[in-house]
Task: structure prediction
Amino acid sequence: MSDIPGSLLPWQAEQWQAFVDRFDQGRLAHAWLLRGAAGVGKLHFAKAFAALALCESDASEISGQPREACGYCQGCRLMQAGSHPDYMLLSPEQAGKAIKIDQIRQLTGFTEKTALRQGRRVIIISPAEQMNHNAANALLKCLEEPAGDTIFLLVSSQLSLLLPTIRSRCQQLVFPVPPHDTAKDWLEKQDTVVSSAAESLLEMAGGRPLLAREYASKDIQQQQQILIDGLQDVSSGRRTPVEVAADWLDVPQDRLTGWMQQWLYQMVRFAAGSNTGLENQVGGKMLVYIAGKSGSKNLVQLYDWLLQQNNIMNRGMNLNRQLFCEQLLIRWLHLTVR
Ligand SMILES: [Zn+2]
Result:
């Protein structure tokens, strides 16, 4: 994702302005929790703000334009090069795994040193809910007694998994799903998106534009096709759940559960009689058929089961992927075969 100045997401302009005004007036709390659904641009916002907070230019803002990092000063160049000494982005070392206490210790060391350029530091932790328990506890102290001028931006799309004590020490900034037309407009302008596909990508992503853009990539479409083919083959008896599960191991877990949840959600709505645009998606005809045959009660049960599994995984517990996929597919099969 490009984080160059001028890349402010159009649906965030107002929120951005209010946040930057507070910052300019010296009224910004030092710890923030940026929360909202995945794929609406929380991390994008956090990075753009980090760039602004560390920008060393005093150029006054262009009237009518939101103030952003200048993109040219030494601070901005260091940010673009990924080597600003007063900036830290903390994420799991491996996607989908926990943020560990060692990483928080590094962070603590970082905040104890003097900020090197302008006296201010910015730390982003994303996804914050992936801090394991020890890591979260270690962070608490840092949040309570921040050293110097330090701004913490915690990014989370699953607030319920975050320690309440962490939540209570942060001001919250909520990111809603943007209005459909704004999102579609933006999506159509993205290089990787064929504009005629924007509507269905957005539908697929539950209205979340950054997620929809991600879905447009070739790899991801292939992965999606692997899942749809698997569901279809299991339903039609062409392949067994065990065979399909082996095929699904290449699809990243978060994507797999994300899609399954989205499909099931749309299927529930379809079964309840609302028009969700489901039939226009990849595999839509099959999903509509299964939804009609299964009925909403069974779909909701499967959806709940998936949420539970997802929560287990988000707590950093290891899950046997093959077994998980097999169970999911057997449950899927039971939607129509009883
Ligand atoms: Zn700058």
